[in-house]
What we know:
The protein is mainly alpha-helical. The protein is built from seven helices and two strands.
Amino acid sequence: MGTTTGQRIKALRTKYGYTQDAMAERLGMNRANFSNYERDVATPPADTLSKIADLLHTTSDYLLGRTEDASPRREPAAPAWAAPRDKRDLRKMLEEEEVLFDGVPLSDEDKQRVQDVLTGLFWEAKMMNKRKKPPER
Length: 137
């Protein structure tokens, strides 16, 4: 059996020198709740899991055991004109749980390639929309 979500969270938390109290505080919860995640008593909801992954410089897929690659999530390059809201919209689009082709899940490598293409198309569409908007007065 592979490592559990809780074991992966604990290993990375220790690696980065966080205490359970520090993690819980950053996540806006009490230590007991966070401890339950590490002991696999409870499973973090998707939004909390994403925050944990961000704090531990990894991906939700790694924490869930969907990949063995614990390397940090690559933040797609954004154009200089991109507003924080634009960047948030892109992240939301790319965080789809499962990418399928012909009903079959894509490998992590193929999923990354699709995300790279979508990122380029996203910024191209945003640029075109900005050009079409009349100037604000």
